[in-house]
Amino acid sequence: MINNKRILGLIPARAGSKGIPNKNMALFNGKPLIHWTIVAAQNSNYIDEISVSTDDPTIQSYARAKGCNADILRPCHLATDSASSIDVVVEVLERQNNFDYVLLLQPTSPLRQSDDIDRCIVMAEQTG
């Protein structure tokens, strides 16, 4: 939370991928790719909740074990190559609409750190 504004960290992680099969669970430095995004979000000073939007029960189970909200599997029409990230955000916000900010945290950016996330949140809040 920043200035009484609630923040959702949303991690979109579908199972399908044309280039690397099951890439979000592929190992990067010994851990699944999604792991690094979850850890960065958990170490943020401002994120109130972390949700993982996925169509994959394996990713869902992993996210839950790491303390993320992953209660509902993503609808099939939002798990295609042509589905947009904004459509995924809208679908999640239809269920979880009590947030002032939503951060879309792609698992394919494993080098992003919690201080990168926090600086972005502070910048958004300062600049409106």
Description of the molecule:
There is one protein chain. The protein has 128 residues and is α/β, with parallel strands linked by helices. It is built from four helices and five strands; from the N terminus they run βββαβααβα. The chain has a three-stranded parallel beta sheet with strand order 4-1-5, with helices on both faces. A two-stranded antiparallel ribbon has the order 2-3. β2 and β3 form a beta hairpin.
SSE layout:
Blueprint: E1 7-12, E2 27-28, E3 31-32, H1 33-42, E4 49-53, H2 57-65, H3 85-95, E5 101-104, H4 114-127
Parallel strand pairs: 1-4, 1-5
Antiparallel strand pairs: 2-3
Distance between the termini: 15 Å
Strand content: 5-15%
> Count of helical segments?
4
Multimeric state of these chains?
single chain
**Regions with little confidence, pLDDT below 50 for 5+ residues:** none
- Percent helix: 25-40%
Strand tally is: 5
> Which radius of gyration do the C-alpha atoms yield?
14 Å
Structural class: alpha/beta
State the strand order across the main sheet: 4-1-5
How would you sum up this structure in a few lines?
This protein has helices at 33-42, 57-65, 85-95, 114-127, and strands spanning 7-12, 27-28, 31-32, 49-53, 101-104. The strands form 2 sheets. A 3-stranded parallel sheet has the order 4-1-5, with helices on both faces. It has a two-stranded antiparallel sheet with strand order 2-3. It is 34% helix and 15% strand.
Key features of this structure:
single chain; 128 residues; 3-stranded parallel beta sheet; 4 helices
